[in-house]
Amino acid sequence: MTGYRRVLAVPGMAPLLSVSFLARTAITADVMALTMYVVLGLDMSYAAAGGVAAAMTAGMALGGPLLGRVIDWRGPRMVLLATATAQIAFWLSVPRLPYGLLLGAALAAGLLMVPAQAVTRQAIAATTPPAQRRAAFALESIQGELSYMVGPPIVILCAAQVSPGLVAWAVGAAIVAGGAGIALLDPPLRAANEVAPGDSHHPSHREWLGPGMIAALVMAFGTTVLLSGTDLAIVATLEAADQVSWAAIVVAVYGVASITGGLIYGALPRPLPTWLLLSLLGLATIPAGLAPSWPWLCVAGACAGLLAAPTLSTVADTVSRLAPAGVRGEATGLQSSALSAGFALGSPLVGGAIDLSVPAGGFAAAGVAGLAAALTGYLLSRRSAQSLHPLEPAPEGSPVHA
């Protein structure tokens, strides 16, 4: 744990991670808050709620690179304050908007979502020494896992007890507070020897968006397709076994295993290639479909979950290493877009596999999606290595060829 203590001792890192956790927890809960509002507040169908959720998710996927580019040019504070202001306007208006206008407003709110995750990742890349960066990104991935375990369940519990419109306001307030808090901290996004935001040198896409970066983005997408699909497969499997009430326990076990795996991986002396971690995650996911009951599904979920946070943290580390300082915001925005797209497409993909086969087919589809992304990443990483731009650099800066 010495490595984690050193990361948290970096000036400004502990408060940044704390405030970022507030923002990310609220952001992971925003789709659920809108879902509960449409279903309970507007008394509409889950399909209608899914439309609003899809609109916000699409906005976030499209807006990430655009906001990242503005951060590269103007720095984080202006973007954080502007997006926080946009979130104030959206969430205050949610209980007053009819469904049609809510769809358009959700898309706009997604486009202007507070970039808490992207700013945190850039700050980690800028302020932590290379030897500590993997541990720092492991903490960041654990933070993300905790936000998913905390945010949506709190929204569900509160929406059942109080007005869903009030819950939506609370979620919006937390997003705004987190964004304003990060703006107040104004973390540095460039190291002392790197180009500052607004300077004239901005590398072209040809210089950095090569096979290595594309491989990292493909594997980010594949990882979240697998993870979101796994959640749906868990519910479907337990529903078929008439044990759906245990789904929350199984998902919680998966999350705890992911956090444990992230802590262990961040403390290892050397990293592993992203394609290898994602391959192992895919292979560990497929057999979960054979679990006959919820206790066995907990065991299978724990085995796969150990690899989830390490895979996500390695993707973030890879993107930070491959992105030149002048375009780091755009690169992390693309990473966020890839993650959001994977979460959005994972459930429909796995749901289709379940409808065409059996619930176990959902785990197979999720695992195969992860394996396909890992294979693509491996092939692209080989091409990148042959071009002398390796995908997986070692912490000391020397390349680790696939």
From TrEMBL:
InterPro entries: MFS (IPR011701), MFS_trans_sf (IPR036259). The keyword Transmembrane helix applies. It holds the Pfam family MFS_1. One of its GO terms (molecular function) is transmembrane transporter activity. The keyword Transmembrane applies. Keywords: Membrane, Transmembrane, Transmembrane helix. The chain crosses the membrane at residues 46-66, 100-119, 214-238, 244-265, 272-288, 360-380. This is MFS transporter. It comes from Actinomadura barringtoniae.
